[in-house]
Amino acid sequence: MVFVNLLVGFILALAIALAAYRARTLDRSGAVAAAVLGTLIFGLGGLAWAFLLMAFFVSSSLLSRLFGKRKRSLDEKFSKGSRRDAWQVAANGGVAGLFALMHAFFPAETWPWIGCAAALAAANADTWATELGVLSRNTPRMIHTGKPVERGTSGGVTLEGTLAALAGSALIALIAVIFWRGYTGLVLVGVPFRIADLMGITPVNFPFEQRLAWFGWITLAGLLGSLIDSLLGATLQAIYRCPRCGKETEKYPLHSCGAQTTLVRGLPWLDNDWVNTFCTVSAALAALVMWYLL
Ligand SMILES: [Zn+2]
């Protein structure tokens, strides 16, 4: 049964990764990583898990495409272009994939679902904040000092960006409580239909008040992850300077103009992918602590 699920998961994941590659959302390595991640999540988790991943993937890809033109002027700042590579896919979805793997070992437990949902909520919060935050008319301020900074600077936050993060996190939390571990929330609207039965997952009864509470906790965990992302971006993330353009950038060793960049602050190894990884890890940990305490 596991092998059939993995095979079906692989075919679905491959189809989506290829579509993303052709739509230029992912580069070649990113498409391979997305296919592996999708196979893990679809194949080991099932449909409910696939919905979580798809909500992140579809909404963030749509936002990049919708606002890509207006963001392009900032591309010289970001370490990578709009096409995601394997490291970006792993940084955003790797933790969620690990929880899908945990689910395969502990199918009766709920915590892998909570961890996966919170990790993806944080990744979505961060992506929405980046995609929508750069459109803000207000000057971003550094998260820990409040000093105004140039648009697109790591660690710079705006009210609009933070609201976008909250909305991005809430979308994943909503899907997490509707499709709670495969027990489809269609029962909420009076349709006693269980996707879980088809997927061989034991459905869990989960009362409405608890769903509402976990909608809140997962949303908060995702927002916390994106705040930690900004805080790391403002303090420990490696930021470089281009001597030719005189601009701060995440690009290393070469700026988009071709000049060699030099480190101005942060830890040399802590690049944007590591920051994103810590963002998803911290959200998952926060949600798991809540799960343990409540
Ligand atoms: Zn330059």
What does this structure look like?
This protein is mainly alpha-helical. It has one domain. It is 62% helix and 5% strand. The chain has a three-stranded antiparallel beta sheet, with no helix packed on it. A two-stranded antiparallel ribbon has the order 1-2. A hairpin with a 4-residue loop joins β3 (239-242) and β4 (247-249). It is globular, with a radius of gyration of 19 Å. 48% of the residues are buried. Residues 184-194 have low confidence and may be disordered. Bound molecules: zinc ion. The site of zinc ion has 6 residues, from loops. Zinc ion is lined by residues 242, 244-245, 255, 257, 259.
Secondary-structure blueprint of this entry?
Blueprint: H1 2-22, H2 28-45, H3 47-71, H4 86-105, H5 111-133, E1 141-142, E2 156-157, H6 159-178, H7 195-199, H8 208-235, E3 239-242, E4 247-249, E5 262-265, H9 272-293
Antiparallel strand pairs: 1-2, 3-4, 3-5
The chain binds zinc ion.
The site of zinc ion (ZN) has 6 residues, from loops.
